[in-house]
User: Fold this.
Amino acid sequence: MRLIRNLLALLVLAIGVLWSLQGLGLVPGSFMTGQRQWLYIGLVTVLVGLLGLRWANRSRI
Assistant:
């Protein structure tokens, strides 16, 4: 179960990075390219992915 949570969190993190880069205009070929709102959406998604990784790897005492 821990592996699945880690993989999902990493997927969310990767999607957030992609959206952020598209929002900055560094990844061409999408309607999101150069749209500043996708930078912000991507940054929030990255934060969710990081929190998901932290949650997936928290120690259980």
Summary: The two ends are 17 Å apart (CA to CA).
